[in-house]
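COURSE: Structural Biology Practicum
ASSIGNMENT: Worksheet 4, Part C
STUDENT ID: 0417
INSTRUCTIONS: Below are two proteins. For each, the amino acid sequence is given first, followed by its structure token string. Answer the questions at the end about the second protein only.

PROTEIN I
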Amino acid sequence: MPSLRNYHILISHSWDYNNHYETISGWLNDTPYFLWTDYSVPITRPLTVSGINELKQKIRNRISLCSCVIILSGMYVAYSDWIDFEIDTAVSMGKPIIGVKPWGQERIPTKVQDNADIIIGWNSASVVDAVRRYAV
């Protein structure tokens, strides 16, 4: 059997909506024949830093190792400086951005619309398919 590709993924999300992160990471974990390494910073695994500049550098380092960045595209993204930073960093590094529209949401923040390589619906098959198609 051929070896599986290991996708290196950062799931950008707001800690206030950590359940969205948990859902997406659960989908990826539960997908048969799908291997991934999580470069995200969930509320359960915060980075240890001494200031904003160090935090930015650690996030840059994580994104630099990624095959793609998944942006959970709730409207809260429009008000998150950190998610803006992660989008700008991914764009500057040429990392594919997959926007995921949360269940029942009708609008997507302009920042995501303008920078995502693809925007997909809230389901596991769409997320896995987008990673397989867009990851570098």
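PROTEIN II
(use this one for the questions)
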Amino acid sequence: MRLIIVRHGESEWNKIGRYQGQEDAPLSELGRQQAEALARRLQREKLDAIYVSPLQRASNTARAIAEFHADVPFHTEPALLEIHHGDWQGLYSPDVKAQYAAELREWQLYPTRSQMPNGESFSNILKRVVDFKERLQNDHLNQTVLLSTHDVVVKILVADALGINMDRINRLWITNASISVIEYGNDLPYLVSLSEACHLGKLATVRENQTAL
């Protein structure tokens, strides 16, 4: 199976540094432009299935891609939801830093042992993402599948493929509307590309401008 994983385009809350989690923030104008550029980049890819997070920032990114792949099955998949940020959802980055400094630092350095207040545990999102990946491997042998999802989900899939410590995932930067590709065969999985964003040009999101991660 060849897995093409895209992170959604910039959302309105990405732009202003507001924690989203499973809140349903829409794409920003830049995010819509990024989704269109991503769609053009992928228009000649042969896809066998598209799976998307229910949140509109991911589903609308995928719908731009699907415009070029009208005959490809399009599935909404709850396993692709972003991690639930609990009490952080809706807060701006400086407020989280001020109110939850220790918890934020633990999330950044040791996500596997952290849990945002009233949020989702890392073990839960890890299980749902890896379980879904294994289901895809069974259902889409020798096929190409596109996922439109979120930052933490992309990082988990990449870390799982590489066999690296999940506590290192926040050292990965996943650009909005970027492409990461993993190939699964009978042997080892291979990370073919990570956060590729050449198609974005000047539309690429600058890492320093996204603080609510």
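ANSWER KEY EXCERPT:
Q1: Residues 122-139 form the longest helix (18 residues).
Q2: The helical segments are 12-16, 29-42, 56-66, 93-99, 101-109, 122-139, 151-162.
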